[in-house]
Amino acid sequence: MFKDKSDNKRFEVIYKEDNISGCKILVDKETGVHYLFSWTGYVGGITPLLDQNGKPIVSPINK
């Protein structure tokens, strides 16, 4: 699923809506965990995305 790790970027943006406020879904390429980053102006926050059972959404990692 992920590109070659030689780019040394740990997080990959897989979804983005941006303006003065917006959100991004990031995937940690080392763990596969998905995170939601949301902001409005200069204020923002990040949280792991959870499935219907409350467990983190994780993508398979190609090693």
From TrEMBL:
Residue ranges constituting the DUF6440 domain according to the UniProt record: 10-59
InterPro entries: DUF6440
Superkingdom of the source species: Bacteria
Protein name (record): DUF6440 domain-containing protein
UniProt source species: Clostridium senegalense
